[in-house]
């Protein structure tokens, strides 16, 4: 529980400009653990060396630790004091010393899942960003790098497996049924990359031979019974290792690479050096329990964490303001990897969908911040879509501007120059400039300015010469009223729609100015413009086009992403018009969907993405004031119209046998995805036989992709089949936490009118628990993303989410704080909803003893 007396009245704001180099370095650390679920004794021996010119006391951060003894160079030392929860050791004018501190911690009481905690009888750690200070007193800042030696001892029956970073040096038996292991990591690392695991685990072992011929022993450690579900993760790991060698020239650097899966985890996974710790969600997969999307998630996250070994571990961050240095780059790397493993256009479509769903709203709201923030109160609140996903877009733009060869020169230079260092975003950009021989002075604004740039486009004509006039604006964001134009790559092409005349082939323009004119060439009639192809810049394009032009592009553009965009824009225009009571474009949408179904029939994965209607939230983002009810109504109406008009096509797709669930090729995944989309359209059309059809698919499914898609479709309705299927699903999977999460999730996603009440009821279900972040996200995360339900006019949805935040905060502030942003979007809604949302934020803030995490998010959300 949060101790109210230790919560500062006003959270302290940390500023990027206040960075000072550390006064002490710690080349070596020896940690000694006597493990126990309720009491673990930790002795930390830090060999400290003065880095500052003038003597300064040694400041060691602590969080919830009480030192039981302090020794310096082996002798008891009394010259120390506690300042708040930190330990100050006065070392006089010594240049170097070994400082040893003993403390005892209680992992079983650690419900925040930061530091050393117990999960299912096993002990594990999570240290990023500032969790190490909950294990041992330490500066706990990423620019202090040390070689770690870790000795751990514990009961052999309770903890048969003892793991830490690096290589195992020695192990042995102790007294009274105990055993011990000594691990050593030769690579200096910051404290946030420390990890330890002790428990009863089984391993899937494999080997990888690196490009220089070194053998690496790979291990994926899970609970007994889960071993059969680790094969996909292992394949993904080996593919990642190979890909990083081939594409970036990066080789693995230890004899072992271990991954441990734990079921209680705040985030997706963690890149601890040589010992990644994963949320089970991103390791365990088999066709019966995981969907194709889950499989892709496993592959992407395994790759992400592995790639951190270079982008994050060998080159780490100087301070937490530089978080995007490792996260933006690593997301870009995992996106490129997944694109190479499957379909690149479909992967790009998915990544852009995530960016628009999670990052654009953040950039337009009260929590907007640059990818390199200027200040924070609680760093955990800055593991955001902006730092990660917009950060990846910024790296992608540099890669686009430089081209593959020069980009590789830039990354080679970056890794060579900063290996073993704690670097900054500026260091990365400079390496790109020098390696890529390009001036990125203006481009640096992407690191400084928040807000999604908007490009307003207009065509101009001089005789038969056509031009594109681009006007760039960057909206004001909290603390940043005036913005300067950004440098960005804009890929475009132009087509003569009658197929005659000239076409401008794929062209890369570089935008730098507020207003800029780009020549398109000679056309006898107004050309169709294909713009921001491949989503070359993370911007909003404001360009009015007739439905006919969009439909033409959806059919004829030679860039698949641009075809997708054209159809999405057509749908979006139609839906936005419908919400304001104007009927337009519906026939063009139906025609374009029909055309896509036949025209791209050989690429079902692409078709499935392209014919999907924009989400309710994304429709809302286009409006001045979001009207969740009208959006729900009009989206359902368009879905029903497409469902009915193309009924034969949807039925034909469903009449073909589904590929076997064990077939995980991109083609098979695409066919299953399209079947799910077809079923949803058919269901929307309201045809009476659909619940029966969905139930048959649910019952006959040989894998989770089909089963979940059918269940989700049924969950929207009120058929007998719905209740029956939910019950069967529950009975079958009640003992599998990851699958049970899906059971909560599909109900929270439901478009039924009673979803708020249903979610409240599910929160009282025996299988619901606040102790497990996955379960909390499955129910409340899904619910907060269900726009019409969450924004129910009486405010019941807001109350439900605020109740959760209040109940969860004392237990797990990090996960509680992540639930606040949906309430912070109040400015986008009508006055009645605004008042209700603000009242809930105020109610949260009025709670005594609120964490720093929730305080920061809730108070900023009210501004
Ligand atoms: N660094 C992790 C990643 O992105 C994310 C993470 C952050 C995990 C904080 C746990 C805590 O790979
Ligand atoms: Zn990461």
Automatic annotation (TrEMBL):
One of its GO terms (biological process) is proteolysis. It comes from the Bacteria. Its cofactor is Zn(2+). Residues 108-193 form the Aminopeptidase N-like N-terminal domain. It holds the Pfam family Peptidase_M1. Residues 451-543 form the Peptidase M1 alanyl aminopeptidase Ig-like fold domain. It catalyses: Release of an N-terminal amino acid, Xaa-|-Yaa- from a peptide, amide or arylamide. Xaa is preferably Ala, but may be most amino acids including Pro (slow action). When a terminal hydrophobic residue is followed by a prolyl residue, the two may be released as an intact Xaa-Pro dipeptide. It is an enzyme of class 3 (hydrolase). GO terms for molecular function: alanyl aminopeptidase activity; metallopeptidase activity; zinc ion binding. Residues 549-862 form the Peptidase M1 alanyl aminopeptidase C-terminal domain. The keyword Cytoplasm does not apply. The keyword ATP-binding does not apply. Keywords: Aminopeptidase, Hydrolase, Metal-binding, Metalloprotease, Protease, Zinc. Its EC number is 3.4.11.2. Residues 233-445 form the Peptidase M1 membrane alanine aminopeptidase domain. Belongs to the peptidase M1 family. This is Aminopeptidase N. It comes from Sphingopyxis panaciterrulae. The lineage of its organism: Bacteria, Pseudomonadati, Pseudomonadota, Alphaproteobacteria, Sphingomonadales.
